[in-house]
Amino acid sequence: HGWSVQETTTYQAFHTKLAENGFDLHEVYLGRYVSLEDDIEIRDIAKALHRALHKKLNGDWGQPFHMVTHSTGALIAKQWIVHHYKGRFAREKSLKNLVFLAGPHFGSRLAHHGRSMMAQARYRGETGKKVLNALELGSAFSWQINEAWLDPANWKKKGIRPFNLIGDKVRNDRFKSRIFPAGYEQGSDMVVRVPAGNSNFKLFSLSAGKKKLNPVGSIEGVPFAALKDFTHSGDDLGIMNSITSNSTPHTHLGLKLILQCLRVRTKGDYQSAYGALAGETRRTRRVRPGFAQLDFRFRDDQGAPIDDYVFKLGAIKNGREVPSRTVAHIHKNKNDPGHFTVFINLKKLEPKLVYFIEFDADSGSDLFQYKPDPFRATVSPHGITEIITEDQTTQLDVTLSREPSENLFVFHHGDDPNLHVRWNRAGKVTSRKPLKYK
Fold first, then answer.
1. What's the first-to-final CA gap in the chain, in angstroms?
2. For the chain, which terminus, N or C, has the lower number of CB atoms within 10 Å?
3. CA distances for 170 relative to 23, 176, 227, 232, 334, angstroms
4. pLDDT per residue as tens digits for the range 141-174
5. pTM above the 0.85 mark?
């Protein structure tokens, strides 16, 4: 389950529907973990999951099983798979199908609101701040876990078949949407953005010396569906907790697709599921525009974060530079300000234009500067469609050179008894006077 859930009722009748639709279940173990303690981290929960699962399996890791996650459960599962489901535990490749429902693979716009005083009042105390830190857009955790996920040895070679399903519907409430726009954002399920709910992604590096996007890695081919009639949660529209005792695969699309994913056994089955989920996304796109997300990480050439900067995404139109109309929202991570997320409205993207990314970093000192200043990279019309992919997040790792000024470290003739030089903080000479000896 996801953040803040304290009751297994969030699953509604999902487990009983599995039993009714061909799964020979003796018992369904519903994971219930603590997420509202401020000092608890995703890695703690993943380790606790491993212990609990080891106990439920009676130490027999040869038993095949599937895993279904909702919301934050996706991050816990991925962390567990990378750091615990390995060695002798993964030798038999027991974990088969992994269904992510509304998984915030690249964060949620709502996460930092969960750390607010309003949230503390709502939950009468702690709100799981470190879990929310990992859930914030552009978090260091999301970068770490997704970089680890790029290595096929961490999941693909373990025989795991992942799937992504997320709602793409926002309730119509003009009053609430004005008061709390983050929870009524088009291109989301009201909690997680559709591109952030897709584990398929691309990673590029962009360095000051080359000014050229360098592909680092990508995940492709994981079945993904954006479903037009579902939201993140809710008894009526929630992607999982709208599955009631009266639901059937004929009346509930979410249940139908989940069952198809869980029944996958072969590569052919997996490709069929890919096609089925892609077909649902195409149906959604006929009535609702698609979005994309860019996730930047700004660092210097020694790997230290760059926190103080101005970012600009623009286009060159009729020979003039104009601000990009595609930017729907920007977010500078509160805990890792060197991370910057841009939400892209593809309906307003003009693919025939040349786009540019400009990044002006402020060192705050005359004794060193980030080079080049400002940093700019242009992207051709072909390049922009390569970087910005509908319903996906693209990570861009930007590196600038941190250059000290000539006055930061100066050798001078220390053996001259007649001269003593003083500098100010900017490295400028303020006085010259003879040395005096006692």
1. 77
2. C
3. 33, 12, 11, 9, 26
4. 999 999 999 999 999 999 999 999 999 999 988 7
5. yes
